[in-house]
Design a protein that fits this description.
The complex is a heterodimer of chains A (193) and B (217). With 193 residues, chain A is an all-alpha fold. Helices cover 62% and strands 1% of the residues of chain A. In chain A, helix 1 packs antiparallel against helix 2, helix 1 packs across helix 3 and helix 3 packs antiparallel against helix 5. The longest helix of chain A is centred in the first third of the chain and has 24 residues. Chain A is elongated, with a radius of gyration of 20 Å. Chain A starts with 17 loop residues before the first strand and ends with a helix. Chain B is built from 5 helices and 10 strands; from the N terminus they run H-E-E-E-H-E-E-E-H-E-H-E-E-E-H. In chain B, strands 2-4-5-6-3 form a 5-stranded mixed sheet, with helices on one face. In chain B, strands 7-10-9-8 form a 4-stranded mixed sheet, with helices on one face. Classes of the chains: A mainly alpha (193), B alpha+beta (217).
């Protein structure tokens, strides 16, 4: 019957879920995650989509984020199930995604940690960045540069946190950041001229 | 003081609603992955926006009886009144109701003496129209009850358009028929005897009664 809601989209045998979780301070972490999903899947998805600019990739990374969170909870880890925690997971997954993309296209181009980009020049750079161009440029950079610039500037994380996400030392992260800024600037100026 | 040009890249999080199919699918995976206690998460066979389980005797967590191969699916408007009517007159038990965000009932299932009757409000946009809109119903719904006279009285009291008072029929039923306020035609009967085909043939004039198909001889 055409009037049955969802009949055209879903097989009737598909399991479908109703959650009626009463707000309570001691709900278990799994339920809290489900509630965060219901209220905030758009927040995680919006975060990822704005940084990767591809719906399919954003769906993949959002999926990995929530399933990763569920896995952590199932393993009994003592975590604070909050949106901030989820965004933190999303950051890791996004960086993983960029690394995978990098591996896939390696051979076609080599942009990662370009050794010719040596940190001899030092900022200042007093360009008024055109944000739209800047985002395009960012998407063209190699995974490491894209990741470090995204975390540091789009997400506005302190270097210490960027280092944690990238699993590098702070010192190595600072160095990467300098190279990434130079690579960005070089490409940005190419595009602008 | 120089401002770092990279600071212009800052991008606060703005929620974006994903494709609902994606959300639905991921949520189901998430529930599986979490194996959340079933006390708080129910897995009905199907549902939608708002689903209520009206019958305390058949909770959704228990498997429901398989429906007959053919189940009538009627269009009645307003469906909410029709459910009340079938409950009052036939003793129907509501099992499932899907209430749409627009207030219409998109799907409901009633159990009447073990049989399933499914119904919905009018959805003209899907060609789902009531007997009133269509100018009548070509379908008779045949319902067997314990006491056809009692149902007949209830139907009358609830505004049915009764065309025939209960009467004994040669094929073994005491029968009445009426059109309910939603335009559906009902044939309500109580079995009073189980005559043989020969007995029926002897009792009806103007018809040839056969068994096992018209070609049977």
């Amino acid at each position: 019957m055409g009037s049955r809601p969802g009949a055209s989209d879903f097989d009737v045998t598909e399991r479908w879920v109703i959650v009626d979780v009463v707000a309570s301070p001691d709900v278990d972490p799994g339920e809290r995650l489900l509630r965060l999903f219901d209220d905030g899947v758009g927040e995680v998805y919006g975060y990822v989509l704005s940084r990767c600019r591809n719906r399919h990739v954003a769906e993949d990374v959002t999926t990995e984020t929530f399933l990763g969170a569920a896995d952590t909870i199932r393993r009994g880890a003592d975590v604070d199930v909050t949106m901030a925690w989820l965004i933190g997971i999303a950051r890791h997954k996004l960086v993983d995604q960029w690394r995978r993309e990098e591996r896939d296209r390696r051979g076609l181009r080599t942009l990662t940690d370009d050794p010719t980009v040596v940190a001899t020049t030092v900022d200042p750079w007093d360009e008024q960045l055109d944000v739209l161009v800047a985002r395009d440029v960012l998407a063209e950079l190699g995974a490491h540069h894209r990741a470090v610039l995204t975390l540091r500037y789009l997400d506005d994380l302190p270097v210490r946190h960027v280092a944690e996400v990238l699993q590098r030392t702070e010192h190595a992260t600072e160095a990467l950041l300098v190279r990434a800024r130079l690579a960005f600037r070089r490409r940005y100026e190419e595009v602008r001229t | 003081m120089t401002v770092d040009p990279f600071e212009r890249l800052r991008q606060p999080i703005e929620p974006v609603v994903p494709d609902p199919r994606f959300t639905t699918f991921l949520r189901a995976r998430l529930v599986d992955a979490l194996a959340v206690p079933t006390a708080t998460v129910k897995f009905p066979e199907r549902t939608t926006m708002t689903t209520t389980t009206a019958s305390p005797t058949t909770p959704l967590s228990e498997p429901r009886p398989a429906p007959s191969a053919i189940v009538p699916y009627v269009c009645v408007t307003p469906a909410v009144d029709a459910i009340a009517w079938y409950t009052a007159v036939f003793g129907a038990v509501e099992e499932v109701r899907y209430t749409g965000d627009d207030g219409r009932i998109g799907h409901a299932e009633l159990r009447i003496r073990g049989a399933l009757l499914t119904l919905a409000d009018e959805y003209p946009e899907e060609g789902h129209l009531s007997a009133h809109s269509l100018g009548g119903s070509p379908v008779l719904l045949q319902l067997t009850v314990d006491d056809v006279d009692a149902v007949h009285i209830l139907a009358l009291e609830h505004g049915a358009d009764v065309s025939a008072a209960p009467a004994d029929q040669p094929y073994g039923n005491r029968m009445t028929s009426f059109v309910d306020p939603f335009g559906l035609r009902w044939l309500v009967q109580t079995v009073i005897a189980v005559p043989t085909t020969a007995e029926i043939q002897a009792a009806v004039e103007g018809y040839t009664v056969t068994e096992g198909g018209a070609d049977a001889s």
